[in-house]
Amino acid sequence: MEFPTDLSTYTLWSAYLTVASLCLTIVGFVLKWGIRFRLVGVTGFMGVLTAGIFALGLGLYTRTEVPNAVRYALVYDNGANQAVISVANEVDPSKVEATLYQAADDLYSFGRVDREGNQKLTVRLRTLVHPEPGVTLPLYLGEVKRSLRVRDDDQIQVTIFTDKFAQLPQNTNS
C-alpha cells in the first residue's frame, strides 16, 4: 500500500478530524457529557497537530540539481535582493553558469524584498586569487538576476565575465 507524500493531503484530513472533534465537543457541552473537558483537550491537540502538518508541508520543497554545478559557499546575503557565493578557482565558464543557475534556485525565497524597486535577486559568483604571496583578491566571474516574485522564473539573466577567467591560476598538473 502506497501512502501519498504530499503533506497537503494529510493536512486536509487532519483539518476534517479537527472540525469533527470540535463538533463533538460542542455536542458534549450542549448535552453536558462528563468527558466534555477532555474533548476540549482533544480538539486543541488536533488543532495544533493540523497546524504543525500544514507548516511542515510549507517547509519541504524539493531541491533541484543543476548538472555541472560545482559546490559553492554563501559569502554574503542581505536577505533581500543581493547575495554573493564563492567557488574554488578551478572552474570554467560552463561550470560557473551551471553554479549560478543552482544558486539562483537555492537562494530563492518568498520572504525576500527589494528596496530598490527592480524586483530582482542578484547573485554574484566569485573566487579568490593570490597574485603574490600574502595578497588575496576576490575575482568576480559572473552573476545571475532572477525574479523575487516568481518561483519558476523563465527570464533568468546570467552574465559570465569571460575576460576574468584569464586571471585564474593555470593548473600545472595537466
TrEMBL record:
Keyword Membrane on entry: yes
InterPro entries linked: Uncharacterised_Ycf51 (IPR019664)
Positions of transmembrane segments: 12-31, 38-61
Keywords per UniProt: Membrane, Transmembrane, Transmembrane helix
Protein name: DUF2518 family protein
UniProt organism field: Gloeothece citriformis (strain PCC 7424)
